[in-house]
Amino acid sequence: MFKFLPLKRYKNRKVKVKFKEEIEPQEILLDNLSKRRHDETGLSEKKLEIPLSKRILQGIYFIFLILILILFGKTFQLQVVQGEDFSKLSEANRFIVHRLQSQRGVIYDKDFNQLVFNKPSFDLVCYKENLPGEETEKKRILREISAVIEKDISLLEEEIDKSDTSQILISENLDYQKLIILEARKKEFPGFEIIDNIVREYKKGPLFSHLIGYERKTGEKTGLENFYDEYLKEKPGEFHLERDAQGNLISEEILSLPEPGNSLVLWLDSQLQEKVQKELLKGIAEVGSKKGAVVVLDAKTGGVLSLVSMPTFDNNLFSQGMSIEEWKEIDDNPYSPLLNRVVSAGYLTGSTIKPLIASAVLEEEIIRPDKKIICQGKITIPNPWDPSSPTIKKDWTTHHWTDMRKAIAESCNVYFYTVGGGYENQEGLGPTRIKKYLDFFGWGEKTGVDIGGEITGFIPDKEWKKEKWGQGWWDGDTYNLSIGQGFLEITPLEVVNSFAAIANGGTLFQPQLVKEIVDKEKEIVKVFEPKVIRQNFISSANLQIVREGMRQAVTGKNSPHASAVELNSLPVAVAAKTGTAELGNDYYHNWVTVFAPYDDPEIVLTLVIENVEGDRIAALPVAKAILEWYFRNEK
Questions:
Q1: Residues 123, 619: Cα–Cα separation, whole Å
Q2: In this structure, what DSSP letter does residue 212 have?
Q3: Residue 72 to residues 58, 59, 60, 75, 90: CA-CA distances in angstroms?
Q4: Could you tell me if 351 and 578 are in contact, meaning their C-beta atoms sit under 8 angstroms apart?
Q5: Cα separation, 550 vs 410, whole angstroms
Q6: Other CB atoms closer than 10 Å to residue 303's CB: what's the count?
Q7: In this structure, are strands 107-108 and 263-266 parallel, antiparallel, or unpaired?
Q8: CA distance 226 to 561
């Protein structure tokens, strides 16, 4: 047994060493224990005590102070400076509102044949921030995406790199084969996503494009799609999600249900529209023209039964997307297929104006309808400055003695020169009264048709010529205006609308394409009643004389040079007025306007074929084919 001496006996005892430091007794024990541990484990322990310098302590103090200040500053920034913004972001992350998709209203013709549909569409979009940061992986994804959608990879990279937005449309209206491949491999393509939406599909697009217009994904709209957007547009529903900080769903709630848009029911007869376009295409091809327009109105309401402008375009290209080549083909077409010639093109009318001039002459009591004027094929206008050089205004033929009905039937220029501008002892209307009555018939103003893009026709007058050309108004200007020549520019819609007033006894309606609005169950929401612009501006008795002249143009009675006898074989009696507007270089605009049946007019048709070479009859055969079909197939 070991025997230990009491500790007090070691007190005041010290070991002398040659170092200056003294060894305390307890250190002897510690060294002994350390030695024993070294012997047992082979590990050595040495006592090292080096006090830290004052400079180091100060450095540590300042480092901790700086860290505390940084922490305080960042806390101040997050909670005070940016607290409101982060609070909003937090709320946005917590509460998420999804839109529930609905459908835009559709469009029907008068018999509820559907002309416009809603079609599912799928687009591939890229979210730049979600693309892989590693360049090799990003290249792989872009290479494989370009192969699937058949787009050059350099073009794809350029679209993504140059885009200023985080969401980039890569490919729209994916076909089913590409859609299936992309859906099956979507996990392989981070940064890319398929978005589903709805696009407009237009039945027989080129047939109805000028009146229906189109709606693009960008929101751009034309035609009825734009004019009635307030009724057609859908109201998406809202679905509310609440999540916690970890993204776990807390609650979900439907805030509002989606509501489809209402639908349009047109006055349009789609079968008539198809026939009109077919016959117009045939007619313009036969005379070597490329351009023309036809519009048909309901004589008793102003409803638009047909509206065709040629050349036309496919509005599906605008709603569902088109290639650069397809757009170039439209944009480079010299015949302007996007131009709606019925409402957006002004024309010289030629002799089409004469029934309106006759109405004004009768209303102003300038001449009795049965008074005859001799037509020798021309009138000679003396030149007060040079008697040896008179102005000669020619007629297209010699009509001999001609009263008003015969003048309308044979389209006698001399008669209308005389009553329009005055000649020898016969008073004429003069330019002021001509313009007054053309205004009454709606020429020179917009009709207000519900389609958009309508231009204002133009009727020249003294003030305009002085301002435009710095010249006075001459008698020759009045003679030209009396037969629809000179500076006149009138739309086909203005023409047909004015003749509807002649046909129905003196009521000028505002033309309308839409008859009523219906809901998804086809229940009527709103009815558009006929809108009267003006009425009774010409007496019914005077209009009857004008109608008789137009009827005589078809029957040829007492009118050997009647201009529209080709229409006398139609299933119903009709009245008509032709027009040939001189353009120079032996080219003409060829017109015809017809109302039928004569005794109780239902429809009024105006047709113009542009740039017809020579005095060929172009419009009449087309009008005849349309009207024959219409009245033989009328329900």
A1: 46
A2: H
A3: 21, 20, 18, 5, 22
A4: yes
A5: 9
A6: 23
A7: parallel
A8: 47
Length of the chain: 635
Q: State both tokens at 296.
A: 């048909």
Q: What is the pLDDT of residues 60-91, one digit of tens each?
A: 777 877 878 777 766 666 666 666 665 654 55
Handedness of CA 490, 495, 496, 501 (dihedral sign): positive
Domains and CATH numbers, the chain: 98-266 (3.90.1310.10), 279-304+346-633 (3.40.710.10)
| Helix (H/G/I), strand (E/B), else coil: 176 | helix
DSSP string computed for 529-598: --EEEEE-SS-HHHHHHHHHHHHHHHH-TT-TT-S-GGGGGSSS--EEEEEEEEEETTEEEEEEEEEESS
CA dist 308 and 292 (Å) reads 8
Distance CA 628, CA 64 (A): 100
Kindly state the average pLDDT of the residues 564-592.
Answer: 95
Residues 6+ apart with CB under 8 A from 398: 375, 376, 377
Residue 95 neighbours by CB distance under 10 Å? 13
* Whole-angstrom distance, CA of residue 516 vs CA of residue 526: 6
List of residues 6+ apart from 211 with CB closer than 8 A: 223, 224, 268, 304, 307, 340, 451, 513
SS3 399: coil
Reported pTM: 0.80
Do residues 581 and 484 touch, judged by C-beta distance below 8 A?
yes
Cα distance between the two ends of the chain:
136
The model's pLDDT over 414-453, given as tens digits with 9 standing for 90+, comes to 999 999 999 999 999 999 999 999 999 999 999 999 999 9
What span, in angstroms and rounded, lies between the C-alpha atoms of 310 and 327? 18
**Residue range 489-522, pLDDT digits in tens:** 999 999 999 999 999 999 999 999 999 999 999 9
Using an 8 Å Cβ cutoff, are 227 and 242 in contact?
no
DSSP of 333-378: -TT-TT--HHHH--B--GGGGHHHHHHHHHHTTSS-TT--EEE-SE
Helix axes 475-482, 430-440, angle to 10 degrees: 30
**Separation of alpha carbons 449 and 227, rounded Å:** 10
Collapsing DSSP to helix, strand or coil, 310 comes out as strand
Q: Which of 446, 266, 206 is nearest to 342 (CA)?
A: 446
Minimal CA–CA distance to 562: which of 541, 584, 578? 578
d(CA 244, CA 94): 6
Supply 234's token pair: 């859908």
User: How would you classify residue 583: left for phi > 0, otherwise alpha for psi between -120 and 50, otherwise beta?
Assistant: alpha
Please give the sequence-ordered ranges of beta strands (E in DSSP) within 172-320, or none if there are none: 192-202, 237-243, 249-256, 263-266, 292-298, 304-310
